[in-house]
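Q: What would this chain look like folded?
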Amino acid sequence: MNNIAYFEIQASQPEALVAFYQQVFDWSFTRDESLPIPYWRIQTGGLYGGLLQRPADTPPIGCGTNAFTCSIEVADIDTTAEVIVELGGQVALDKFEVPGVCWQAYYLDPDGNTFGLFQPMPHA
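A: My prediction, written as C-alpha cells:
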C-alpha cells in the first residue's frame, strides 16, 4: 500500500508517443479497445502504466509542469539522453549529480511531457 503502482502519460498524438517511448525505453504498448477513449496499456518490465489522449490543453512553454513527474532508472544516462534528443525530445534540465546517489536529468518528450532519468551511482 501507498507505493506508486501505475502511471499515465497524456498525449496530443498518442501514436507518436507510443513510438517514442518504445524506441527510447523498449516499453511494450497494447491498445485497449474496450475503453471509450483511445488508451494504450504500458508494460515497462516493472511498473505498469497507460497512455491516453490529452483531455485538456498543456500549460504554456516556460511554465512549470502541471503534473506528477516520474523518473526512469537507466543503465547509462548519457546514451539514453542521446536517443531522446535524436527522437525529438528536449533537455529540460541538464544532468546533475545527487552526491553518492545518482545522476539525474529531466527531459521533454516530443509532446511536451516532462519526465526524469536517473542512473544510480555504484554502491549508492
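The first helix runs from residue 14 to 25.
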